[in-house]
Specification:
This protein is of the alpha/beta class. It folds into two domains: 195 residues, Spore Coat Polysaccharide Biosynthesis Protein SpsA, Chain A (Alpha-Beta Complex); 221 residues, Spore Coat Polysaccharide Biosynthesis Protein SpsA, Chain A (Alpha-Beta Complex). The strands form two sheets. It has an eight-stranded mixed β-sheet with strand order 3-2-1-4-7-6-8-5, with helices on both faces. Strands 11-10-9-12-14-13-15 form a seven-stranded mixed β-sheet, sandwiched between helices. Strand 2, helix 3 and strand 3 form a beta-alpha-beta unit. Helix 11 packs across helix 12 and helix 13 packs across helix 20. 46% of the residues are buried.
């Protein structure tokens, strides 16, 4: 039979995490894996959870982010996502694994029961369960579960602070209708009792309607729980780019390109990189900033800034000073920041997300190495801010010693360094072959517009 992993996202749950995990002991004895994903608790939650879980890991705050991190760490064939205020039925493992194995369902959820005794809560839970069966949409309180391969193919939970369960359900129901288990999970009714049942129903309907009509989940989250939304937004992504002047950019690609083509390719890469770094939702986080070398009024930079990207001018005598200054400035406001160039067509928002997770998990500095001895991403957390100049001082930029020298600087400064898998960048004529003719042509076409405009 398939194996089950239970992912529990937590944030400052020290008062209740022990009984939550204690109720999962029988499932662990029967082979279920329990992974607790902490979003930066300040009350000792990870320490209390550790004896009662198979693994406790740290991730960037936000349920979606934490559940995705837990899914990546999980070993099970089926993933079950359990809120810390929800209790599973005693035989939940059997119900899930048998239901997935014997039916045509790739995912599912339980019916829900609210913990309070008020008669009106019975009506609420009945309506929630009926609506879920009718629409094929599940809520996180219903303990969503899915085959691992289906969850991964769906891209996991979208990186949004609210309605992540609705968005995931909408994706998964294209694969199969949900398995709606009539066994009930019991979830806390505290929210309903604190805010009032009628008010909570109206508020949830309003939020769902706004989300369905295209409202940004970040804006909705600020209405629903503003303090957490501010915490989720405490990240920055910085993109470094040069003004696309023929003869001054991508000079190592001349030949086979001529100077104008090299500049056009650079301009296309700037646009492409910024688009890959932007969050998938309007007004989303993390905030993206473009730091430019050259004329900030260039049409290329104006076009990028018009998409809601922050624009700044690089400051410093050399690349190291400019990178240190940009990260230092970002970390005066943000908890974590990453800086990327525009020379790596394969660098994605997922790489950025994993880099930020490494910083949230305790790394002081994170790198995505380049296969030529440099790196395509560097990030740091606020605690390392004052040591940033030392990380980049004296690094032999433009050589194959960049990565090794940066590692040495981090070690000498007693900074915990995390590294992701290396990627290829686009610096030499032979690198053009890995780009592919179609993508190369598309980048050149996009970039030529701005070279002509100049």
């Amino acid at each position: 039979m398939a194996s089950l992993s239970i992912v529990v996202p937590v944030l400052d749950e020290a008062t209740g995490i022990v009984p939550v995990l204690d109720r999962l002991r029988p499932l662990r004895r029967r082979g279920a894996e329990v992974i607790v994903v902490d979003g930066g608790s300040a009350d000792g939650t990870p320490e209390r959870a550790a004896p009662l879980a198979d693994r406790v890991i740290r991730a960037r705050p936000g349920r979606a982010r934490q559940m995705n991190a837990g899914a990546r760490a999980a070993r099970g064939d089926v993933l079950l996502f359990l809120h810390a205020d929800t209790v599973l039925p005693r035989d939940a493992d059997r119900l899930v694994l048998e239901g997935i194995a014997t039916g045509d369902h790739a995912w599912g959820r339980f019916d829900v029961r609210l913990s309070g005794k008020a008669p009106a809560l019975r009506m609420v839970e009945t309506l929630v369960n009926l609506r879920s069966r009718w629409t094929g949409i599940a809520t996180g309180d219903q303990a969503i579960f899915a085959r691992r391969e289906v969850f991964e193919r769906a891209g996991g939970y979208p990186d949004i602070p609210l309605m992540e369960d609705v968005a995931l359900s909408a994706t998964l129901r294209r694969v199969s209708p949900p398995l709606c288990l009539r066994a009930r999970v019991v979830t806390s009714s505290r929210r309903w009792e604190t805010r009032g049942i009628a008010r909570t129903i109206l508020e949830m309907w309003r939020l769902r309607a706004a989300f369905a009509l295209g409202a940004s989940p970040w804006r909705l989250a600020r209405l629903y729980y503003p303090h957490l939304a501010d915490r989720l937004a405490a990240e920055r992504t910085i993109v470094f780019a040069k003004e696309p002047v023929p003869g001054r950019v991508k000079t190592r690609l001349v030949p086979p390109l001529d100077p104008a083509e090299a500049a056009a390719l650079h301009a296309g890469l700037v646009l492409d990189t910024v688009e890959r770094m932007l969050p998938p939702w309007p007004d989303g986080a993390p905030r993206v900033e473009l730091h430019v070398a050259g004329d900030p009024g260039h049409p290329l930079f104006a076009a990028v800034a018009g998409r809601g990207v922050g624009l700044a001018v690089q400051r410093g005598a050399d690349l190291g000073e400019r990178m240190a200054a940009a990260l230092h400035r970002a970390l005066t406001e943000a908890e974590r920041a990453v800086l990327v160039g525009t020379d790596c067509p394969d660098l994605s928002s997922d790489h950025v997300s994993r880099a930020l997770e490494a910083l949230a998990g305790g790394a002081d500095v994170v790198l995505v190495p380049a296969t030529d001895g440099g790196y395509v991403l560097v990030g740091a957390r606020r605690d390392a801010r004052d040591r940033l100049p030392g990380i980049f001082a004296g690094v032999p930029w433009g050589t194959d010693r960049v990565l090794a020298a940066t590692r040495e600087r981090c070690a000498s400064l007693d900074l915990a360094l995390a590294e992701l898998a290396p990627l290829d960048d686009l610096d030499r004529p032979e690198d053009l072959a890995t780009l592919g003719e179609d993508r190369r042509a598309a980048l050149l076409d996009r970039g030529r517009t701005f070279i002509r405009a100049r």
